[in-house]
Amino acid sequence: MRDYPTNKRLMIFSGSSSIPLAEKIAHHLGKKLGKVNRTKFRNGEIYARFDESVRGADVFLVQTCSPPVNDNIMELLIMIDALKRASAGMINAVIPHYGYARQDKKAEGREPITAKLFADILEVAGIDRLIVTDLHTATIQGFFDVPVDHITAIPIIAKYFRKKALKNGVVVSPDVGGVKRASILARLLHFPLAIFDKRRPCQNVAEIEHLVGDVKGRDAILFDDMIDTGGTLVEAIEMLVENGVNRVFAAATHPLFSKNAIEVLQGSSAAEIVVADTLPIDKSYDPERIKVVSIANLLAKTIKKVYHCNSVSELFKDENLV
Q1: How far is 17 from 258, CA to CA, in rounded Å?
Q2: What is the DSSP letter of 112?
Q3: How far is it, in rounded angstroms, from Cα 180 to Cα 97?
Q4: How many helices (H) and strands (E) does the chain have?
Q5: Over the range 155-183, which residues count as b (16 or more CB within 10 Å of their CB) and which as e?
Q6: Longest dimension (CA), the chain
Q7: Does residue 100 sit in helix, strand or coil?
Q8: Which residues are CB-contacts of 44 (< 8 A; sequence separation ≥ 6)?
Q9: pLDDT attached to residue 206
Q10: Which residue has the higher pLDDT, 107 or 156?
């Protein structure tokens, strides 16, 4: 926290990766995005300058870790440094999708823990607080020595599926590590839970071996925190079809959609793929197959709670169990 008093002004700015989402958040807050000049030098180095005074203000800086991931992270760090040197009262980083989160522990010798490294860099740059959505593992919060508000899009996704009035539904976790988040969605929808046994022989390769649970004749929701290339997800979808499900819906908070993921997903047997807008999506997708729900209002409510020093957990009551 800065060592001089805040004059209690809420200001919201956006990095290059989150402008549409940040505009929605600002709209819900009755604000306009702050003016910032973002550009690059000819050699690719990033330049950022805030075009209005931030002295003493509570600043909320929105930047998600979408491709090009490293450029967007560096831009975020440079903007944080500019805010610190411009005497912002509080610097709140709003990172809808936290990058480098999949390397949160050492699975083998001589590996990095990039989730911790990113946390250290953000703190050194000068953040006072982090607001983040559906971390890959909730333990990443412990990598920070500043307050972390870890919010979840699960109730928003649950609300979408309630409107579909699925009958005889089941929520399926794609692996054992995702059981907790899948069980929250299952509880909110009052559905049973099934689990895939998935093994990773190496990075970016996953093999599904077993399915535990009754899915035959049911509408299945295959739920994960992120969708990357979509390959393993499609394999799981087809395995559910082979096990006699009625319909398969895939859902996730973060649509990474690397390479040709959109084409792969739309060619699958899934009735719909439901994701949140934590990351920008290529507009080539079919809106009848891929449904996007917005977390903008949730983030706006979180920002308002933080600004007024109120409890963020009240937004979820007993739903925020991730």
Answers
A1: 16
A2: -
A3: 19
A4: 8, 14
A5: bbbbebbeeeebeebbbbbbbeebeebbb
A6: 63
A7: coil
A8: none
A9: 59
A10: 156
Q: What are phi and psi of 13, to 5 degrees?
A: -130, 165
Rounded-to-integer distance, Cα 68 and Cα 106, Å: 25
Cα–Cα distances in Å, from 199 out to 55, 177, 195, 214, 258? 51, 11, 13, 21, 21
Are 282 and 259 in contact, with CB atoms under 8 Å apart? no
Q: Residue 293, exposed/middle/buried by CB under 10 A (0-12, 13-18, 19+)?
A: middle
Cα–Cα distance for residue pair 57/321, rounded to 1 Å: 32
| Residues 95 and 73: beta-carbon distance below 8 Å | no
Is pTM beyond 0.90? Reply is: yes
At 184, which helix (H) or strand (E)?
helix 179-189
Closest residue by Cα to residue 204 from 166, 167, 232, 180: 232
| Inter-axis angle of helices 179-189 and 154-164, nearest 10 | 40
Task: For residue 317, give Cα distances in angstroms to 179, 276, 321.
Answer: 21, 21, 9
Question: Which amino acid is present at 84?
Answer: K
Is residue 148 classed as helix, strand or coil in its secondary structure? strand
Q: 288 is written with which tokens?
A: 């009848």
* Lowest-confidence segment of 50-59, 140-149, 313-322 by average pLDDT: 313-322
Closest to 289 measured CA to CA, from 269, 307, 304, 308: 269
The DSSP-derived string for 50-89 is ESS--BT-EEEEE----SSHHHHHHHHHHHHHHHHHTTBS
Q: Catalytic residues, which ones? A: 198
Q: Which domains does the chain have, with CATH numbers?
A: 10-151+297-315 (3.40.50.2020), 154-294 (3.40.50.2020)
Average pLDDT over residues 263-275: 97
What's the average model confidence in pLDDT over 3-21?
85
3-class secondary structure, 244: coil
| SS3 category, 246 | coil
